[in-house]
Batch of 2 targets.
Target 1
Amino acid sequence: MSHSRRNFLGAVTTAVTIGAAMLPSIAAAASSTNTARAAGRVKLKDGTELFVKDWGSGRPVVLTHAWPLSADCWDSQAVALVDAGYRVISYDRRGFGRSTQPAGGYHYDQFADDLAEVIAATGAKDATLVGFSMGGGEIVRYFSRHGAKNVIKAGLVASVVPGLAKGPNNPNGVGPEFFDGLKDNLRKDRLTFLSGLLRDVFYDVAASARSTTPVSQAVVDWSLQMALQAGLHSLIRSVDAFGKEDFWPDLAAVRVPTLILHGNADKPVPFDLTARRAAKGIANATLIEYAGATHGLLVSERARITKDLLDFLKA
């Protein structure tokens, strides 16, 4: 087992619990352009309720988040995008954050369909879809299940696409026993496991000292608070989705301009396994490699991520 995988399975520290404000339940109101705007929650066809943040006006950008976090991980970029004149829609995946925690549906076909329902409920048109880490899977599966309906661009940030697991399309991938080990650690001691994972692997705090924005303990504590909002059942069931899914067949369906941002020192989502392969499989992709950057790019390379996204949106 590699050093990074051993780190991924080890964990220590404590949690800081921070209260989270809840928006009201779903409310639809017509905007000046007669576009339906969802505020607070979107109720899906299966009864699951997703917590949605819908900020600003202008051309929409829809953001999907990493495991085990929530839509809040995007807040810094979301504020910058709103200030630049974009409408930003972000939401907590089913079972995560402030969304409800159904018994099932923790697979990418359902996640992509949930994304389609959010797009429909918010009336987003000519949108750019951007997925962080696990959230990249929703983006490419959306294209293979729903086409480019209402979407003109896409972005993948430190994304698991086109897949981590070993298989016919990924002979150098990770064995399934590794992901089974993650689930075992969650069952044994979720708090200790997640706190160590966030510090040593997701953010790789020690390595982030070389980044433009070193990751502080406060950021790790904030992220742990987000992670602990997710249901244990949801966390466990989602591991097989982000860990074992093969997205290679989905890439041919992504025909819109696609920006790929990824650090080449990413421990949990290695650059060569994911970003480099995604750039080869997506016809209209632009890959930007962040030298020495770890997985937690939304924090450690906050300003650069924001600038690269804005440049892409304006192009």
Target 2
Amino acid sequence: MINFAAAVGAEDTEILIWQSWEGIIILMATYVIGDIHGRLKLLDQLIQDVPWDIARDKIVFLGDLIDRGADAPGVVNRVMELVNRNPNIVVLSGNHEQMLLDCLAYGDLQWLIPENGGLATLSAYGFELDQLKDVSDIKIPPEHVEFIRGLPFYHEDEQAIYVHAGLVPGEHPSETDTDVLVWTRDLDFFKGYDGKLCFFGHTPTAFLPREGRSRRWGIYIHNGCVGIDTSGEDGSPLSCIQVESFTLYQSYPSGTTEVERLKHRKPSISTARVAP
């Protein structure tokens, strides 16, 4: 069920127009999805309710597909299915994917600290902590591990930079330590970044500076950065934003998908690679 928080008219459906070699006009919009954290129901709700072309439009997942929620394997499966159907889908690594890989590769137990949510993923894959003698006993499907291992740490296109946690102002992400890209929580970025439009997740918007938020579970928009991780609480939604029109779609556990027009808050797009 879709609830239009603001009416969406034809003027809001802005998309990129590409000319193929065959001379056919191809229309493609870009969507960004925040931290899913194992909430397959909310992802499927977006897939059903967002008016996109799921086989053609560009969709960027900002990472943290797993942990905390009940069905991390289902989320990974669903995203892999989408990637196989649509070459324009980009999936980034988050800190939770990195913790899983570090646990499997190096025996790093940070992933299994209860507060980090890895135990929910472990259980969803059919294992309980008290049944394990060693991390080598954890058997996650190899295709899932390989998929997660191959995820990039950032993406950039003509419109924006996309990253899980944030950027170092004045530094291109290609020059930044990957730990920063998936772990940083830096007020200099949240409040001082004014470079090329940047979408990020990782820090729930409820904990971001108040001046960039307008409501509970709203997204964060300040200068050039846009935070869309609205996870972290019972009842909180999964957020998806169309880049061109800044139309926000939020799927709630209640089954409602709310739609809000935010074009009036869209930052002006800088041609700079990053903030000077």
